Amino acid sequence: MVDAGDDIAMQDAHNSAGEQSQQPVPEQKPKYRDNYVINSKTITTPPFSFICLELVSDSAATTKLDELTVRTYITSALTQFLGLTGSSISVDILKVQGKACWIRVPREDLSPVVAAVGGWVGGNETEGRVGWKVKAKGNWLSVLVADREAESLWDI
Q: Is the distance from CB of 144 to CB of 50 less than 8 angstroms?
């Protein structure tokens, strides 16, 4: 036997199902906008590294540092430390100012060049010994220059 309460419940269920299908479905907003383009950029390892060197001398006389002198001292250091292989390393002199200079070397040759110029002592006893002090080294020149400028900020 069907109860009257069940019959009403059946009609309500049928009406509510019919009403839902007849009502328009609200349009869903997309989770992203079409005008946004998502890009990603991977910074690869740079092909060159940069070194800031300072000429250190034990004599009281100041030596004038120019591009030719820098090239001679660096080639001497590389040849003394690494032999013929060291002399074939490409070194670009970017800037010479006072006793400091900036050079550019291939990234894979950074460590051998730093070891060669850092341990090199040139000159003679009568004129005085000279050597290089490595002030900064790295793959990104802008970071190195900013660090060097920040160091001199507080010097009076």
A: yes
Q: Give the position of tokens 């820098």.
A: 70
> Within a domain: residue 9?
no
**pLDDT, tens digit, for every residue of 13-34?**
555 555 555 666 667 666 655 6
pLDDT digits (tens, 9 = 90+) for 49-64: 999 999 998 877 767 7
Residue 65: DSSP 8-state: P
**Tokens 């850092």 label which residue?**
118
CA distance 137 to 73: 18
Within 10 angstroms of residue 4's Cβ, the number of other Cβ atoms is 7
Residue 139 near residue 45, CB atoms below 8 Å: yes
What does DSSP say about strands 48-57 and 92-97: parallel, antiparallel, or unpaired? Answer: unpaired
Query: Which residue range(s) make up the domain with 131?
Result: 48-153
Strand order in the sheet with 121-124: 92-97, 100-106, 48-57, 128-138, 121-124
Instruction: Yes or no: say if 52 and 145 are a contact pair by the CB < 8 Å rule.
Output: no
85 lies in some domain: yes
